[in-house]
Amino acid sequence: MAAQHPGDDLADVAGAKALLKRIRAGDIVGTFAARDVYRKQWSMLSTPEDAGKALALLVDYGWLRRVTEETEGRTKTAYEINPGALQ
């Protein structure tokens, strides 16, 4: 990951690093939802809030891309992995 942004909380950065490590290990592949992260109960990523903060940071750094899809109900949000994140 790049240098930390001034407003980034250290716990959020640690969660983002943990998620990036899981992505690089192949534990998360393709397009996925936030619930696919927190349901696995991984350290630093076990709540919707922790997973959301980690995902937001990885989007900010360009490792993930947020994809939204309009449905009849709520808007569906998913994440696509930047191929550069796998290196």
Question: Could you describe the 3D structure shown?
Answer:
This protein has one domain: Arc Repressor Mutant, subunit A. Strands 1-3-2 form a three-stranded antiparallel sheet. The protein is built from three helices and three strands. It is globular, with a radius of gyration of 12 Å. Helices cover 38% and strands 16% of the residues. Strand 2 and strand 3 form a beta hairpin.
What percent of the residues sit in helical stretches (DSSP H or I)? 25-40%
> Can you write the helix and strand succession as a string?
HEHHEE
Main-sheet strand order equals: 1-3-2
Q: Cα-atom Rg, whole angstroms?
A: 12 Å
What is the terminal separation in angstroms? 11 Å
Q: How many β-strands, per DSSP?
A: 3
Looking at the overall shape, the CATH architecture is: Orthogonal Bundle
Query: Which word captures the global form?
Result: globular
How much β-strand is present in the residues? 15-25%
The secondary-structure class comes to alpha+beta
CATH class descriptor? Mainly Alpha
The CATH homologous superfamily corresponds to: Winged helix-like DNA-binding domain superfamily/Winged helix DNA-binding domain
Main β sheet profile: 3 strands, antiparallel
Number of helices: 3
User: On the 0-100 scale, what is the average pLDDT?
Assistant: 89
